[in-house]
């Protein structure tokens, strides 16, 4: 009975093989952890470890491995041996200019009937200041930066004058979806 079980186990193990390798960046040759490695046409898969190494058991008839990672171009590599090393290239994605107007309505910049101003990170970083709000002073029309010189005073950005329905024209900053008052 034990001999038959051993023969059956060898038959099952002979139907799969193990493929291993390393996934690196084509840009600088560094290893890439967390790359998805899957057998095309199946649900079999794994991910690379911290050193960019992977190890996957595939069926004997497996023909293609798919390597994918966010921000990198996916690659399909034919299975030719037991070791497959892969280099992934960065995927360049162009983003069209979109302006978010009142009530969260998105429009293309060229389709708006009014002027839109933009201050980039390079412009803000050129100004030597301890506060990024101070670096906006004089760069955007309709925005007045008020600096309180008292000890512990704050800097305010006032938009379009002094009067409003709520008696506050201070700017509301949203950074990565978090509102800063």
Span between termini: 75 Å
Mean pLDDT: 77
The description of the largest β-sheet is:
4 strands, antiparallel
Beta-strand residue fraction: 25-35%
Order of helices and strands: HEEEEEEEEEHEEEE
Integer-rounded radius of gyration: 28 Å
Give the proportion of residues in helices: under 10%
**Total helix count?**
2
Report the strand count: 13
Structure description:
The chain has 181 residues and is mainly β. The chain has 2 helices and 13 strands, in the order αβββββββββαββββ. A 4-stranded antiparallel β-sheet has the order 3-2-5-6, with no helix packed on it. A 3-stranded mixed β-sheet has the order 4-1-7, with no helix packed on it. Strand 10 and strand 11 form a beta hairpin. The termini are far apart.
Which helices and strands appear, and what pairs or packs with what?
Elements: H1 2-13, E1 16-25, E2 36-39, E3 45-47, E4 53-59, E5 64-68, E6 75-78, E7 86-88, E8 98-100, E9 106-108, H2 121-126, E10 143-147, E11 155-159, E12 173-175, E13 178-180
Parallel strand pairs: 1-7
Antiparallel strand pairs: 1-4, 2-3, 2-5, 5-6, 8-9, 10-11, 12-13
In short:
With 181 residues, the protein is mainly β. Helices cover 10% and strands 32% of the residues.
Keywords:
mainly beta, 4-stranded antiparallel sheet, 181 residues, 10% helix, 13 strands, 2 helices
């Amino acid at each position: 009975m034990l001999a038959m079980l051993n023969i059956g186990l060898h038959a099952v193990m002979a139907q799969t093989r193990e493929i291993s390798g390393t996934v690196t960046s084509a840009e600088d040759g560094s290893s890439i952890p967390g790359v998805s490695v899957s057998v095309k046409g199946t649900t079999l898969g794994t991910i690379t470890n911290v050193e960019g190494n992977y190890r996957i058991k595939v069926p004997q008839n497996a023909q293609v491995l798919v390597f994918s990672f966010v921000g990198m171009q996916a690659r399909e590599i034919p299975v030719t041996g037991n070791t497959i090393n892969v280099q992934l290239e960065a995927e360049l994605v162009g983003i069209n200019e979109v302006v978010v107007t009142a009530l969260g309505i998105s429009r293309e910049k060229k389709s708006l009937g009014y002027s839109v101003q933009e201050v980039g990170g390079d412009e803000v970083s050129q100004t030597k200041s301890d506060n990024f709000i101070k670096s906006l002073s004089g760069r955007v029309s309709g925005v007045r930066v008020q600096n309180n010189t008292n000890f512990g005073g704050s800097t305010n950005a006032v938009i379009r004058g002094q009067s409003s329905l709520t008696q506050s024209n201070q700017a509301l900053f949203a950074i990565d979806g978090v509102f800063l008052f």
